[in-house]
Specification:
11 strands; SIR2/SIRT2 'Small Domain'; alpha/beta; six-stranded parallel beta sheet; Rossmann fold; about 250 residues; 2 domains
Length: about 250
């Protein structure tokens, strides 16, 4: 099946009653100029993302970790949602059974106006008190770029603040897992712009498939094996084509 036929077969499943769940990764934000988490774009000052996005790295050198996150925040602040973000935002407004689960922490889906977003790995625009001075949920939004102080401090107890993201080795928030589990009861599950290598996010599509969903992977270099259909291509191009046919 060629790419056009594949796209046609997915679009044929669109209806007002259909439940669509979309799982997105870094490839969706690539066209916005946001470096991907892996590969050459993940290198910063000789560090790889996997070396910085850990509790151990933060305990060892919180300033260096925060300098990396500040660099990323500045890049994202200068970026704009691309065609992929816009298409998904439009679908979320038109389709009552639409849910988006994103591994991205950049907030571009929300800036595009997407509804019903589940932030699987948190948000880079959220900070948390390392001392949990008001309990483990003590978090707040801070969109200032640049941040006035590195590392930033908790406004209540002046303790060290951490990025409000899920690091390697940390569990996913239980409420987030529950919401994601419910969203996997769907008719179609699109996996877009992700290498499907990082668990537990990489296992979401498999769960949806076990429940009867039709699984489609959209990525320049498809990597998942347990899917029904693979469309090799950039997120903004494939989703843009799909949207033109839906309209």
């Amino acid at each position: 099946m060629n790419p056009e036929e594949s796209i046609d077969s997915v679009v044929a499943r669109w209806s007002a009653q259909a439940r669509w769940t979309v799982v997105t990764g870094a490839g969706v934000s690539a066209a916005s100029g946001v470096p991907t988490f892996r590969g050459a774009g993940g290198l910063w000052r000789s560090f790889r993302a996997e070396e910085l996005a850990t509790p151990e790295a933060f305990r060892r050198d919180p300033r260096t970790v925060w300098e990396w996150y500040e660099w990323r925040r500045q890049l994202i602040a200068a970026a704009a949602p691309n065609r992929a973000h816009e298409v998904l935002a439009d679908w979320s407004r038109r389709q009552s059974g639409f849910t988006l689960i994103t591994q991205n922490v950049d907030g571009l889906h929300e800036r595009a106006g997407t509804r019903n977003v589940i932030r699987f790995h948190g948000s880079i625009w959220e900070l948390g008190c390392l001392e949990s001075c008001r309990g483990p949920a003590r978090r707040w939004n801070d969109g200032r770029v640049p941040l006035p102080e590195l590392p930033p401090r908790c406004p209540d107890c002046s303790g060290l603040a951490r990025p409000g993201v899920v690091w390697f080795g940390e569990p996913i928030d239980p409420d987030t897992l529950l919401q994601s589990e419910r969203a996997l009861d769907c008719d179609v599950c699109l996996v877009v712009g992700t290498s499907s290598l990082v668990y537990p996010a990489a296992g979401l599509a498999a769960v949806a498939r076990e429940r009867g969903a039709f699984i489609v992977e959209i990525n320049p270099e498809p990597g998942a094996s347990d899917v029904d259909l693979v469309i090799a291509g950039k997120a903004e191009e494939v989703l843009g084509r799909m949207d033109s046919l839906i309209h």
